[in-house]
Specification:
Layout (H helix, E strand, L loop, with lengths): L3 H49 L2 H21 L1 H7 L1 H24 L5 H23 L2 H8 L3 H29 L2 H22 L17 H15 L4 H32 L2 H25 L5 H12 L2 H8 L3 H15 L2 H12 L5 H12 L3 H15 L1 H16 L1 H4 L55
Helix pairs in contact: 1-2, 1-6, 1-7, 1-8, 1-10, 2-5, 2-10, 2-16, 2-17, 3-16, 4-5, 4-8, 6-7, 7-8, 7-11, 7-15, 9-16, 10-16, 10-17, 10-18, 11-14, 12-14, 13-14, 13-18, 17-18
């Protein structure tokens, strides 16, 4: 017979595993999804370059993939809460997988036109962002369920994403070089299907993943009110306006790097997609190390100083080095250092948002803030393709690097960024419960200021974003 103490221990162990299961599911599904995202990051630009031979057209494809992401994040937050985070994640992955698989199938049949490629990439952008957001906003609830400190889970979430990018980029570079971009896109479609399967099985019965059932019935008026509530919250605190604007600019610059500048540099100077895969995977591996290091010791350091240093190291230097060298080694070293710097950014941003935004507003506020930081993303690849064809690769790299440097000086220049180290407080007294004002962020004073938000994950020049 098992001793009572042993039986209790076994029961506790089983309960602990059950409590950690949903968090493990989300981390695994995200790892699978982001591995596929790395395949897209390398596979789609090379597919566009191989089939059209034009950096400008590669930029147009990037624009068509990025613009719908902005549209879906502008309006998708309330729908995620109403439809349920699990349901949105599954549906998003299935539609995106089907759209991606259609590209190489049509190409193999000899009927793929350029407009079809743009349209299918637009479908993936429109449908992917809500699924990514649905998984992201579950993290605080799943961390609490698992009994794990939120800053550590935020670091783990980002570290898993970085590791997936590292593996996916290395795999994508080799696959494009030896099997072609078509094969990469088919594998990417398969990752969407696997992610949907994991969420289907692993989040069943998790209350935070189910549709909102105790709120008012969804109607056009209620939808507009929910959407307005998220944006109203976003514009009521000061610090996050600076964060949102800064990340908005850098996301556009990062899009120019990943969709046009790095693929063209790799094709013209570095020897092809294998070199690009090596660079992205080294960057992602070092970013993984940076995220893990921050999770272990960084929580005791001042966030503002760490954030500023990470952005300065991970932002402009790769552009400058790429402009000044035609070999892989110097850029590889630079991207390794940049990866360590960028690795600390997302855990800080995620923790700030999770600490300040109420759970019942999280999807709406995150949708509003993500839309804000993605405003420039559709233009990044489009502008880079145009500039490369008109001015050349080297001047474009130097110009974008200079703009990146100026942008990343913001945390050191503007006093509002000191609030990043402030201890979260309760809403100001006198604000009634039950309405949008009940969720006013700490320190809110007027609509002219910005509220807590979580900018879209910051990739840095060598990395990838979630599938936009």
């Amino acid at each position: 017979m098992t001793a009572p103490g042993g039986a209790e221990t076994a029961a506790d162990t089983a309960a602990a595993k059950n409590a950690r299961g949903p968090l493990a599911t989300v981390l695994t599904a995200n790892a699978v999804s982001i591995t596929g995202n790395s395949l897209t990051l390398i596979g789609v630009p090379w597919f566009a370059l191989d089939t059209t031979g034009s950096p400008g057209k590669a930029g147009i494809v990037a624009f068509c993939a990025a613009l719908p992401v902005l549209l879906s994040t502008l309006a998708g937050g309330p729908l995620i809460d109403r439809l349920g985070r699990r349901r949105v994640s599954i549906s998003s992955d299935l539609v995106c997988g089907l759209a991606l698989a259609t590209i190489p199938l049509l190409h193999g049949m000899g009927v793929l036109e350029f407009w079809m490629l743009c349209a299918l990439m637009a479908v993936t952008g429109l449908c992917h962002a809500p699924g990514e957001m649905a998984r992201h906003v579950l993290v605080p609830d799943l961390a609490q369920r698992a009994g794990t400190a939120l800053p550590r889970v935020a670091s783990l979430y980002d570290a898993v994403a970085r590791g997936a990018r590292m593996a996916g980029a290395a795999l994508a570079g080799l696959l494009v070089a030896f099997l072609g971009a078509d094969t990469v896109l088919l594998l990417d479609a398969a990752t969407f299907g696997l992610s949907a399967l994991l969420v289907t099985a692993g989040l069943r019965g998790v209350p935070a993943a189910e549709p909102m059932r105790d709120g008012p019935r969804l109607s056009p008026a209620r939808y507009r009110a929910d959407l307005r509530e998220g944006y109203a919250y976003l514009f009521r605190a000061r610090l996050m306006l600076g964060i949102m604007v800064m990340v908005m600019v850098t996301n556009g610059l990062n899009q120019s790097w990943s969709s046009v500048l790095l693929p063209v540099h790799a094709r013209e100077e570095l020897g092809g997609p294998a070199a690009q895969g090596l660079l992205v995977s080294v960057f992602a591996g070092c970013a993984l190390a940076g995220a893990l290091l921050y999770g272990a010791v960084g929580v005791r350091l001042p966030r503002r100083a760490v954030f500023a240093a990470g952005f300065l190291v991970g932002g402009a230097p790769p552009y400058v080095v790429a402009a000044l060298t035609d070999t892989t080694a110097p850029l590889l070293v630079t991207l390794a250092a940049a990866g360590f710097g960028v690795g600390v950014l997302n855990p800080i941003l995620t923790t700030v948002m999770y600490e300040q935004v109420p759970e019942d507003l999280r999807s709406r506020v995150m949708g509003a803030s993500t839309a804000g930081v993605l405003l420039t993303t559709p233009l990044g690849g489009l502008a880079a393709g145009f500039l490369v064809e008109r001015a050349g690769l080297t001047p474009t790299l130097l110009g974008i690097g200079a703009l990146y440097l100026l942008t990343t000086l913001a945390p050191l220049v503007f006093p509002a960024w000191r609030g990043m180290d402030a201890t979260p407080t309760t809403p100001p007294e006198g604000i009634p419960d039950g309405g949008p004002a009940a969720h006013d962020p700490p320190g809110a004073k007027s609509v002219s200021s910005s509220g807590p938000s979580t900018p879209a994950p910051v990739p840095g020049p060598g990395g990838t974003r979630p599938r936009h």
